[in-house]
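Board work, copied verbatim: Cytochrome bc1 complex Rieske iron-sulfur subunit
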Amino acid sequence: MTEIGSHNDVPENLPEHGSDHGHEAARKDPFANPGLPPHEFRRQDIDPKAARHSERVVTGLFVLSMLATIGFIACFVIFPVDKIVYIFPFGHVSALNFSLGLTLGVALFAIGAGAVHWARTLMSDEEITDERHRADADDQLRENVRQQWITGAKESGFGRRKMIRNSMLGALTLVPLAGVVLLRDLGPLPEKKLDHTAWAKGKKLINSNTSQPLRPEDVQVGSLTFAQPQGLEETQDDFQEQIAKAALMIVRLKPGDIKDKRERDWGHEGIVAFSKICTHVGCPISLYEQQTHHVLCPCHQSTFDLSDGARVLFGPAGHPLPQLRISVDGDGDLVALGDFEEPVGPAFWERS
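↓ predict structure ↓
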């Protein structure tokens, strides 16, 4: 078995390229090693003009890759996620997805095509053979490999062909930026968006089932009712986004059963309002145990005590459910006295 090696290491028992000795050996033994065919020089090896042309082609491909990567980043910024365009023959497609796929494909293809064209036209292409060596190389073999590496690097023209080298390094430097930009799809930074919901001072608590304002007499001891802010309608474009933060659960406890003083002060005659969004991963809480005043998240079994500030009793949730301060307005309806004083839902790195 043979492998690529140094030209100087060709075994003596192998026939030389295109020699009569090789043809003679083939006639005597059809299974004999015929050796390598005579080396044919490429046009770029003998014509400096052709070599310069290949160099310009390789450089152009690397530059094209850089431009395509810049186009990828520009498309990511320019096109909105919901923009649909008609492109023949694909039909109606997402402008963002199509442009990202096209520019990234061109960027990667141009790098590969440039590298292949460089290797095929400008790097050394003479085939040489060497006996397969043992896995544990001796000092002489390691030195031979080192010399082969030095020779190969010299023959590749990497140090001499600065235009190719610099354009390749530029393309390889820019392409990873496409992956960095894609990190934006992990979601926008929360900023202060999680600090505020649709609740505000004076907004009535609307029963999510009847769409009517909740009154104290509508909430019985031991019952669990779900509410949403006044003015939030399902027909709104951002309804799902708003209700995901503003969903509320209302329970009525006997005042003597409420252990937490702030919870008692923030309620009305034993009626207390807590966020319905679990503080673990944001699942909606809906399982209420009347005798213990515990609510259970059905996703991962986080359990909260609604009689003690909704503190966590069990499960992976990291902090209590936020409480909404409520009262009664002049119409006798339950109203909010402001927004939640802390972000609802799962913890995040800017939780205040």
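The helical segments are 20-28, 43-46, 48-78, 95-121, 139-156, 162-182, 239-246, 261-265.
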